[in-house]
Amino acid sequence: MNLKTVKIFWSGFLLESASQIISLFLPVYFSAQVGIIVSHIYNKTSADGIILQTLLIILLLSLISPFAAFLSAKVFLKKSVLHDGVNLKLILQKDISQVHNSGSGSILQLFESDLIEYRLKLRTLIVTPIVVAVLTAVLFIQSTNIIFLLTVFCVSAIPILFNKLYSHLEGVYYSHSAAYNNSRIAFEENIVNNKIPLILFSLKENILELYNKNYSSYINKHAEKNIINLSLSKAVLGLCKYSIQVLIIISFSFLFKSVSIENLAASLFLIYPIGQIIELLIEWVRIIPFMKIIKGRVNFFSNFDNSNMPKTGYENLETKNLVYTINGRKFSFPDIKIKKDNKLLIEGANGTGKSIFLKIFAGELKPQTGEIIFSNPVKEVLGYVPQTSLLFNTGIKENITLGNEIPENEINKMLKTFSLEKPAKRNFVEKDESSFSGGEIKKVDIARSLLNSSGILILDEPTNNLDNKSVEELIKILKTKTLIFTSHDKRLKEIADGTVKINN
Description:
Blueprint: H1 3-42, H2 48-76, H3 79-82, H4 88-93, H5 108-142, H6 146-192, H7 207-211, H8 215-255, H9 261-302, E1 316-326, E2 329-332, E3 337-338, E4 343-347, H10 354-362, E5 369-375, E6 383-385, H11 396-401, H12 408-417, H13 421-424, H14 438-452, E7 456-460, H15 468-478, E8 482-486, H16 490-493, E9 498-501
Parallel strand pairs: 4-8, 4-9, 6-7, 7-8
Antiparallel strand pairs: 1-2, 1-3, 1-5
Helix pairs in contact: 1-2, 1-5, 1-9, 5-9, 6-8, 6-9, 8-9
């Protein structure tokens, strides 16, 4: 990785981490201090020293926080390095001066958001334990009643659990709502096309709107009502959870025979900082599995070694004595030759290295020994569809075009071929890709490879998660392509004109 890139990445990372610590610490520290001050006042002990200390720290942090945030943005988001459609693969592998002259498209428009997200989540994983440790230490050191503080700590977890439960229910609601809407729209299309007799559709409140093709307005109207109800119930829940906290604190006070106004007042202020600590810990645990997804997307490009590939792609290739070793296990691969329009099926039992073989062709892995010989270069680079497909944090169309200029009619044709018109209307891919099914993600990956490649297509189980219609459309297209692929699908196997078996 280029040294300048490393410095920019980690400088931004450290400055943003400092800014995050300050921004989290400031309101939490303030609330905790106010709680302790209130407790001192009701206990009729002096709180002058704590008040002065709190004001000084708040003043200092208020001055530092925006400065750190400004520096963070200034250092990390340098336009000459991370914007203007620069290809980040070249930033990571070559000299910065070559980037603007590469003429290799604007993959960074997609990859930049993944890199930034990876950095932010990495920051959360590192910063959270520091913040939690500091805040917990502040609370415990300055509290005169450890048992009382532990009680508030436990009570604060209750609304957090309520919140997480509600968020889960909210997600389930929206998922079911989306599925409901999709099924209703499909039903509407069937009626309009006379595939279902109108008399069977007996929902009288929207028959007229449906017949006039105004069904979307009906859905939107009801969606708005549901969202309002959801917002109101969320507000009521927020009120309830704090009321429950207060009741539990009073109950604990009775239990420990320490009912007092100062304890109640202090606990009301302490609920917020302690709740923040618990929230941070939950987020820290929750973020770990998402890191794997983002890291996979980042590594796909940052580790992509295309130094042994012709920059223009290829149609014909030959391999000799390829060997790849991982974790002490050696994979030896048979020699192959493939020419234009050939369709080579790679077969072998699970664990024999079929996917490794394809990754070597795609340039994702570099063999320890052996060579790949290319001939007949073509205009565009090869297309590679791995077994685990990836989406970038951007729109579906941008995921498909990879920043390249592709005519709109070709994009729309590909969307229609793989029934991606409706998913393409969603503005943005969620961080964890959970808003898309496995089949939709696979279709996007295939469409991406088909539109951006006129050379060899490298396909690893391309029909996994695809519906029958999409498989049939895919096979029609692949019949005109040069392929190296693995598959358990009999329909796809039938188009192969050659087979190579791996026996590692």
